[in-house]
């Protein structure tokens, strides 16, 4: 089984970015946690981060050819990007939306996600565990198919 985890703008700053909201773990530490979680099961994981919308669209298109499913923390693009939504709709690959914070308990503009209604599922509010839960749920979903 092969999955890709895509990360959007400013997630490269995790560790120092608003630690009271996002915690103190870096994105590299979260990647390590996710890889360690699924290592024994022999899951292959591609990990990607970009601050650029077009680069994420390109990543969705290219990973759709090589991966069985995606986990996406689109960060701020979650709330704004029709292009990312259209890319996911175009390739039709199963994906799970994840967020470190509980977007529904924050500012109103974060309550709307352009991805949730086309996602297989959504995990938010558990910090780095959102990634562990999201990747685990995606893998169970893919195995059950
Ligand atoms: C986030 C939530 C988004 O609203 C925000 O723009 C982010 C991170 C999260 O993981 O909690 O950059 O996706």
Structural notes for this entry:
This protein has five helices and five strands, in the order βααβαβαββα. It has 145 residues and is α/β, with parallel strands linked by helices. The protein has one domain (2-144): Dehydroquinase, class II (Rossmann fold), CATH 3.40.50.9100. A five-stranded parallel β-sheet has the order 2-1-3-4-5, sandwiched between helices. Helix 2 (27-39) runs parallel beside helix 5 (129-144). The model has no long low-confidence stretch (mean pLDDT 97). The site of 1,3,4-trihydroxy-5-OXO-cyclohexanecarboxylic acid has 10 residues, from loops. 1,3,4-trihydroxy-5-OXO-cyclohexanecarboxylic acid binds at residues 10, 73, 75-76, 78, 99-101, 103, 110.
List keywords for this structure.
binds 1,3,4-trihydroxy-5-OXO-cyclohexanecarboxylic acid, Rossmann fold, 145 residues, 5 helices, 5-stranded parallel beta sheet, alpha/beta
Summarize the structure.
The protein is built from 5 helices and 5 strands; from the N terminus they run βααβαβαββα. With 145 residues, it is an alpha/beta fold.
